[in-house]
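Why should sequence recovery work at all? Because a backbone constrains its sequence more than one might expect. Tight turns favour small or flexible residues, buried strands favour hydrophobic ones, and helices have their own preferences. The token representation captures these environments compactly. In the example below, the structure is given first.
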């Protein structure tokens, strides 16, 4: 039968090596023998109520109930279990399992394989663990290395984080780099260091300092990065703000997308507005409201905008479909340009097929194989193979192989054609149309 040493309540005892179990009564104080910084117990230490160790402790197991256990030194045990109480260690904690109902504070490092804390876990040193579960708040002043962390309230790590999965009901704040496979939060994530993450899933807001997210960024509210980000998929309900040069896959935003720099992407699908201060390069853009690109725009697919598009430099795309207006230095579409309102260019707009909507307006030349100008639209110079001007449209100069002009149209400049010119009644030509052998070359 194992030996048991009992310390009465509200007493002080000086110990060294206990070969067996140690029972400590409520309000007792344990000290180490002279020359020792800790006591060693070969068996189980059981504490009732508030107990204080003015030294470190090494034991097989530490149990407590109905009070807080304070250890002024290091704690090294296999298992810790405290019911209706807390644990406060000024030094390091080393254990296989830790199960504490209330608060745990650690002055040094926290090296526990599996930890379950009902209230608050605060570690002033580094944390190394496999699994941590905290009901309230987890605060780490150093670095954290783990597999999984599950916290009901909030997490704050001032150092770096490396592991597999972080799940928090409220908020996560990271002061250093974060390298995990998955992080999810019900409220907010804020990371000051670079990230290397597979997936982010947050109900509220996310702010990071750049890095790489290999999988999906899924955010209910807003997502913001302060530096360059490499990403695969962004899916945000509210707004997205990216900084510097960012590169990735698809971006889907319910509200607005703003990029302070260049963006390389596959697809952009935004319900509201898009603003990119630098160059934009990708497959396609689908925006319900407004698109602004400060530099050049290069798309292998479509530019589909419900409202307006403004490109600071050249736009090279496969197709353009704009409900309102588009402005650029030059527009080159491999297939078609369809604009309901206004086209404004310096060098011109070029496509195989161009269609200007009813009452639309064009500033700058149009260059295409087949161009259709709807009724009451106003255009300037046109270079085409087949041109149709619908009723009451206006044009300046026309250079085309085949021209069809409906009634009420006005052509204010010269008209040159090589094959045919058909016109309806009440068409006004300021200059007499001329059939030529060869048409002038378009601007580009």
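From this structural description, the recovered sequence reads:
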């Amino acid at each position: 039968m194992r030996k048991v040493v009992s310390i009465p309540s509200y007493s002080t005892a000086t110990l060294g090596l206990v070969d067996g179990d140690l029972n400590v009564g409520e309000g007792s104080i344990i000290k180490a023998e002279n020359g020792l910084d800790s006591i060693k117990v070969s068996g189980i230490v059981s504490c009732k109520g508030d107990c204080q160790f003015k030294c470190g402790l090494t034991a097989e197991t530490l149990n407590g109930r109905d009070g807080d256990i304070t250890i002024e030194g290091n704690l090294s045990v296999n298992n810790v279990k405290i019911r209706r109480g807390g644990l406060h260690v000024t030094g390091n904690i080393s254990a296989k399992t830790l199960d504490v109902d209330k608060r745990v504070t650690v002055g040094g490092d926290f090296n526990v394989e599996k930890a379950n804390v009902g209230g608050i876990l605060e570690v002033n040193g580094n944390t190394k663990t496999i699994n941590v579960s905290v009901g309230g708040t987890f605060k780490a002043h150093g670095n954290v290395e783990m597999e999984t962390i599950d916290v009901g309230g909030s997490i704050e790590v001032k150092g770096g984080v490396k592991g597999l999965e972080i799940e928090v009901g409220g908020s996560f704040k990271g002061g250093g780099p974060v390298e995990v496979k998955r992080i999810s939060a019900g409220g907010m994530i804020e990371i000051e260091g670079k990230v290397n993450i597979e997936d982010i899933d947050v109900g509220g807001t996310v702010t990071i300092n750049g890095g790489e997210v290999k999988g999906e960024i899924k955010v209910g509210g807003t997502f913001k990065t302060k530096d360059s980000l490499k990403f695969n998929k962004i899916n945000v309900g509210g707004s997205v703000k990216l900084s510097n040069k960012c590169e990735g896959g698809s971006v889907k935003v319910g509200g607005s997308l703003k990029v302070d720099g260049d963006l390389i992407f596959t697809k952009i699908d935004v319900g509201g507005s898009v603003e990119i201060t630098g160059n934009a390069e990708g497959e396609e853009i689908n925006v319900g409201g407004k698109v602004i690109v400060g530099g050049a725009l290069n798309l292998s697919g479509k530019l589909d905008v419900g409202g307006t598009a403004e490109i600071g430099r050249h736009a090279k795309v496969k197709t353009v479909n704009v409900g309102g207006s588009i402005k650029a230095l030059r527009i080159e579409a491999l297939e078609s340009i369809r604009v309901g309102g206004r086209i404004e260019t310096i060098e011109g707009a070029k496509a195989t097929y161009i269609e200007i909507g009813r009452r639309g307006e064009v500033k700058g030349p149009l260059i295409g194989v087949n161009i259709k100008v709807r009724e009451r639209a106003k255009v300037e110079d046109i270079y085409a193979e087949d041109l149709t001007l619908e009723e009451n449209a206006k044009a300046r100069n026309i250079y085309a192989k085949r021209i069809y002009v409906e009634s009420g149209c006005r052509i204010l400049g010269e008209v040159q054609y090589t094959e045919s010119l058909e016109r309806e009644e009440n068409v006004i030509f300021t200059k007499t149309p001329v059939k030529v052998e060869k048409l002038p070359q378009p601007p580009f």
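A few observations help interpret the result. The mean pLDDT is 97.
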